[in-house]
Amino acid sequence: MSKIILKLGDSLKLMKELPEKSVNMIFADPPYNLSGKKHQTVKSGKMVACDKGDWDIISDIHEFNEKWIKECIRILADNGTIWISGTLHNHPSIGVILKKLGLWIINDIIWYKRNAPPLLSKTRLAPSTELIWLASKTKKYYFDYDTAKILNGGKQMRNLWEINAQRHKTKHPTEKPEKLLERIILLGSKEGDTVFDPFMGSGTTGIVAKRLKRNFIGFEISPEYYEIAQKRINKEKLNGHIVYSDKLIKQNKQLKLFFGTTSKI
User: What is the pTM of this model?
Assistant: First the structure.
């Protein structure tokens, strides 16, 4: 039975309650600081003010990033990994901080969304990627290379991941696909490990962690999204079912054997 701990509040404060080296893997999708009166986005084909919520308005994003990453390093096991999702608005800051704090940067993973929405503006290229920093405290870290190879049809997995964007299951504006989190959690942790998400949002990381028989700790500052996450995670079953590989499983005998073995409770 997976142990699930969910808390409502400021992640920076809540993380201080966690013991050192107490989590095995961290996935973080931090605020990108995109919201503001002068910032715009596209909604229903029209340009509108970008307002994701108060949680996405930060006076000094670089200082904020350094504070929460420092706490993550403190609670991360020596052989653990941290995965941080971002876009051009935030990932340069994250990269600089990871180097400044002495972390070993393992990969910069490019998540390519072939079905990304078109851009109304004619002054730049249509964004269709996000970057995921993968880092560790030392060069001795857990990474399931064999599973990565199996998931990639027997070939070495590269750092370009083509995973389509999915229709959001909740109203959270930055909800990530379960397919993406499944791959990350399978490669970065083992059954029984503890996965931590400091910016839980609508709870996708927790859903996937529970499904794959990992323990999970999630913090969320928004009462609205916390309630959504809590309901979704509590409802999720511990069944080891893999979503993103369903099509591959049907086509590949090796995958059928692999997932048939790992899915047993």
Answer: 0.85
